[in-house]
Each structure stands twice: as structure tokens, then as C-alpha cells.
Amino acid sequence: MSPRRYALALTALNLAFLGRVAGQAVQRWAPLEFLPPFEAWQGSGLPYPALLASQIAIAAGALWAAARMYAGRRVLARRWSAPLLALAAVYFAAMFARIVLGLTLLSESDWFTAWISGAFHLVLAAELGLVGVYARRFAVRPE
To answer: CA 19, CA 71: separation in Å to the nearest integer?
Structure first.
């Protein structure tokens, strides 16, 4: 896969994540009946302003990485690819388990049944994995 295809894949994942961010923001400030209520988007006890700030930072980081990928530039040093891939795998597995447990054994727990949050954590884990794979394949390119 070419660097530009990695950039496009990361951009698609980031757009999905931004859709989630926008959906929750709409429900906070101008609720729409056809969207889930604001509380359904919230998967933690983090105050919404802090959550929104962190989501914007994550989206900006993904945009930065996608722009560098599109230009064929390095995003991370190759030595960071293995730890990032391991983190992405653990993160994905944990969030997948969260969703499965919320649908089965722990259906009484708000955190485990917050499926919107859980699903988009899978998107973020996929973003990390994509950056890790890109770093492994293209880190040798000069700046």
C-alpha cells in the first residue's frame, strides 16, 4: 500500500471519529430527535469540556499524521512501531471485550453498555494500528 493510501485510510477513520464528536456536540447544544441522547454518547465520567478538548487534540494529531503520510514523510521513528502496534492491539481487544461483555454478562453496567463510545474506541485503536504499520513500513524515508 502506498503512503497516500495510508493517508486516505487514516483520514476515513478520522472522519468517522469526527462524526462521533459532532454527534455528541449537536446533542449537547442543539439536540436532534433522530440522534441518540447526549448521555448515550458519553462513555466515561470525564466532564464534557475536557472530553471535547481531548477529542479535538486526537483528531488534530490524526490529521497531522495523515498529512505527513500523504506527503510520504515519516510519522514516527521505526523503533516506535512495535510498541504502538502492541498498544493498538491491546486497546482494540479491550474495547472489543467491553462491547461483548456489555452485550452479555455485564449488561447492567453503564460503562460496558455505552456502545457508541466503545465502537469509536475501536476506531481510535484502528488509527493507532494504522500509524504503527505505516511507521514500520515507511520510517526509513528521509525527512
So the answer is: 25
pTM of the model: 0.90
Mean pLDDT of 10-39: 96
Asked whether residue 143 is domain-assigned, the answer is no
Q: What is the pLDDT of residue 139?
A: 74
Q: In whole angstroms, give the CA distance from residue 141 to residue 143.
A: 7
Q: Please report which helix (H) or strand (E) contains residue 84, including its range.
A: helix 81-103
**What is the count of structural domains for the chain?**
1
Instruction: Report how far Cα 17 is from the mean position of its chain's Cα atoms.
Output: 6
Does some domain include residue 82?
yes
Residue 80's domain comprises 3-138
| pLDDT higher than 80, residue 142 | no
Question: Can you read off the three cell numbers belonging to residue 92?
Answer: 482494540
- Look up residue 34 and give its amino acid: F
Answer whether residue 111 is part of any domain.
yes
Residue 57 located in a structural domain: yes
- Find where cell 472522519 sits: 15
Helix (H) or strand (E) holding 14: helix 3-29
pLDDT at 2 over 90: yes
